[in-house]
Amino acid sequence: xxEEEREGINLEIELIAESQKLAKTLVDELATESGLLSSLxxxxxxxxxxxxxxxxxxxxxxxxxxxxxxxxxxxxxSRVNWTEVINEIEAVxxxxxxxxxxxxxxDEDGISYSxxxxxxxxxxxxxxxxxxxxxxxxxxxxxxxxxxxxxSDMFSIHDSRTFNKQADExxxxxxxxxxDVILESKxx
Length: 188
Known about the structure:
Layout: H1 2-29, H2 34-45, H3 50-60, H4 68-77, H5 82-96, E1 110-119, E2 124-133, H6 138-151, E3 155-168, E4 172-183
Antiparallel strand pairs: 1-2, 2-4, 3-4
Helix pairs in contact: 1-2, 1-3, 5-6
């Protein structure tokens, strides 16, 4: 285990050294940009460590070719924890429909989802499903659900659509729903 820890520490040291070399090289290449030069020089001179240094370096050099370590760090920081997203979708929906279940069934009145489409590139989740109510308040349920997603710290509503409302004497009222939600940035 000590050997693994030493290897991990050595890798971190190599990563910091490699990042500092890259920063110094890029500072030289960008010497004409005085404001950028000052901030980069300050970063290198202050000898930022680990993740903080990589975050600042990544923010400055997004348009430049990354070295291998910076690419790995960028990929790690841009990952989306989809389990966390699903859990938040479930929590938001349960705040409106306490009987909600991710299995897609509606025992009585409530909400069910039939499909999720996740897109990390544009930070969106498209949720398709339906609502069922025994009274005429189907659209109120949808409005409450939309408001709950908007109030969530993780989401904002990009678009919500209800296609139709159908009435059935035995089954109550049903409406198809599509919610297009945007994942809020953790940095903001």
